[in-house]
Design brief:
about 160 residues; alpha+beta; Ubiquitin-like (UB roll); DNA polymerase, domain 1; 2 domains; five-stranded mixed β-sheet; about 35% helix
Length: about 160
């Protein structure tokens, strides 16, 4: 059985159908037509599906869509645009820290939330803040450098 829920995603209202076990990830990708949030492990381990709910990072593959009604959801499409990337996105571009790109949306969400909470984050804080997001392509060094650059840029 499904019910109608209205999700506020990236500042827009989205009427959606959701059952008791429908995940936020499924609704975002299939009904809101926001493909940037990736379906990775589907077990909450990899972080590719990270989004912000009420400003806090969550795994969309483990979060029920019905639990997000009346809360602001921000996906990768909502943190910046190609014409106006946010500080983390711009730093990733400037440092060449993106490889295949599959983990990038989740990394950007995690890093954006981290810098919101710790704007003066040092390297160790950044490493810890990104440790629950997996990247199969890199050794994380360039990603950590990019987030550090974003922190320095936003601090100045």
């Amino acid at each position: 059985m499904t019910e109608m829920v209205t999700l506020r995603v990236n500042g827009r209202e989205h009427p959606c159908r959701a059952g008791i076990a429908t995940t936020l990830l499924t609704v975002l990708r299939d009904q809101c037509e926001l493909p940037g949030t990736k379906r990775g492990c589907n077990q909450g381990v990899c972080g590719a599906c990270s989004v912000l709910v009420g400003g806090k990072p969550v795994r969309a593959c483990l979060t029920l869509a019905t639990d997000c009604e009346d809360r602001e959801v921000t996906t990768i499409e909502g943190v910046g645009t190609p014409a106006r990337p946010n500080a983390v996105q711009q730093a990733l571009i400037d440092t060449g820290a993106v490889q295949c790109g599959f983990c990038t949306p989740g990394m950007v969400i995690a890093a954006t939330a981290l810098l919101e909470e710790h704007p003066d984050a040092d390297i160790e804080t950044i490493r810890q803040g990104l440790s629950s997001n997996l990247c199969r392509c890199s050794g994380y060094r360039k990603i950590v450098e990019a987030v550090s650059l974003a922190a320095r840029r936003t601090a100045s």
